[in-house]
Amino acid sequence: MQSNKQIHLDYHATTPVDPRVTEKVVEFMTTQFGNASSVDHSIDDRARGAVDQAKQSVVYQRFNRRPTS
């Protein structure tokens, strides 16, 4: 028996974004302008801090451990 049901296997390209991620991205796209790679301004320091915090959060949530550096 043949089925006409389709199975979508490309979830990587269409993965829903976690609402917490969306919230942070929108915040930094609308009110927190800064270049995390720059060292010239305090707003850049805030952007760099946010990137560092996001990295630590991902490492902790994925591997249940704190980053070593």
TrEMBL record:
Stated name of the protein: Ssr5019 protein
SUPFAM superfamilies, alphabetized: PLP-dependent transferases
Keywords associated with the record: Plasmid
Cofactors, names only: pyridoxal 5'-phosphate
A single GO molecular function term of this UniProt record: cysteine desulfurase activity
Family indicated by similarity: Belongs to the class-V pyridoxal-phosphate-dependent aminotransferase family. NifS/IscS subfamily.
Chain ranges of the Aminotransferase class V domain: 7-58
InterPro entries, per the entry: Aminotrans_V_dom, PyrdxlP-dep_Trfase, PyrdxlP-dep_Trfase_major
Reactions accelerated catalytically: (sulfur carrier)-H + L-cysteine = (sulfur carrier)-SH + L-alanine
